[in-house]
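Researcher: Final request for today, and then I'll write up notes for the group meeting. The sequence and the SMILES for adenosine-5'-triphosphate follow.
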Amino acid sequence: MADLASRITKPDDKTPAAVVAETKPNVADADAPVDGANGSGLIEPVYDVEVKLSDLQADADSPLFSVSSFEELGLPKAINDGLLAMNFKKPSKIQERALPLMLSNPPCNMIAQSQSGTGKTAAFVLTVLSRVDLSQPTQPQALLLAPSRELARQIQGVIQTIGQFCENLIVEAAIPGSISRETGVKASVVVGTPGTVIDLIKRRQFDASKLKVLVIDEADNMLDQQGLGEQCVRVKHVIPKAIQILLFSATFPEKVMRYAETFAPKANQMKLRHQELTVKGISQMYMDCPDEQKKYEILCKLYGLMTIGSSVIFVRTRESANEIQKRMEADGHKVSVLHGAYDGANRDALLDDFRSGRSKVLITTNVLARGIDVSSVSMVINYDIPMKGPGEREPDAETYLHRIGRTGRFGRVGVSISFVHDRRSYEALSQIANYYTIDLVQLKPDDWDFTEKKVQDVIKSSRAQAEYNPAAVKA
Ligand SMILES: Nc1ncnc2c1ncn2[C@@H]1O[C@H](COP(=O)(O)OP(=O)(O)OP(=O)(O)O)[C@@H](O)[C@H]1O
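Model: Predicted protein-adenosine-5'-triphosphate complex:
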């Protein structure tokens, strides 16, 4: 344990400023004046952010690095026009490297890993769009599976946006309540959750016989989790044998990777070591709370003291999500809650509100830990450290990484604060930090000046990015 705990840095054994400097994002200078409203200048941040983003794409060590352009990938014009409309100037590393392999003929399977927020979605969406024959607009040809309705809807949106100039492209979501029993699936591209997809195929409302591509996003979770894993296997049994399978995730634990290799045989692979998985733009901190009860007061104080922008608070259970919402609202904070107990329409409306900025604080469970892309999120709170396994006794390093990855998207900066309150939570976080070799900055509930400065510096520069980089704020 000794070396595990050593990854957590306390102000006593290491100067916090030095720790922050090590983990400080290289996107924008956190100490630079950024707030136009206080007269510190509007022009410099615009310049700063854009130059630094292109710097990142020119830095060989960055996951956003690339040497080529989208044009060089030889995609059809309609797709390139879609990328232009999205303001995608250059591919990221995963896009540049995986696309030529995925687009080559005869089609080859792919298992691809890349850090959160580095553009995996566009990588598989471009492959799907390139493979679909638009002269058969209602014949399902590509199926994309995701673990939550929210992620399925989001992927559907990305396909529709990048494919906006592809004539006759029809994309449908196969999530609970979305496909009418009368018509069934009438689209060339279908994005869904595995349970609904298998039901539709069984009821003959979805003709899977001509599918050419199967994409599984968050594949480690989808293949490993009880229930989801079985459903994915059932889907595989009812689709053509000669199908191109593309598995994507930011995390692929060794055990799941071995299984993935049998699920997608002879796949090309892009893997990362676990030390390479963290995103530099996310400043990772932890709050040392005296006990479980005090966690709530500290959370409220954090929100009371700071203007935070959009943030996500992850908790272990639906009940504690509801409870925290009630208490925060009683204390005058406006917050939303989203978890699996809400019905589909409600969940959609809640996430749409959060995306548009109508609600700024979202309390949720692991249901939103993966994939959700809301560029304006500048802070993620792990109110409870994610745990897994029987009795939830094992730190869940993968979920930690996905949760904090809701901020710091595509070169942006963000902050994560993980709350610990006893030896167990402290040790769990230490193990996670050790696994990824992260130096976490300690925040103390009795030193709000320090906390405010550290958190606010990051949030201010993230707000500057959101204000000045049009691609950063997506409705
Ligand atoms: N080449 C590009 N240029 C500019 N922005 C891009 C590019 N590719 C993707 N993006 C943007 O980056 C953000 C993150 O992309 P995406 O959601 O695909 O990440 P991801 O790798 O799937 O992350 P996660 O592991 O969290 O699912 C999105 O807002 C997307 O629009």
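Model: The longest helix spans residues 448-468. Confidence is low (pLDDT under 50) at residues 10-51, 470-475.
Researcher: Thanks, that's everything.
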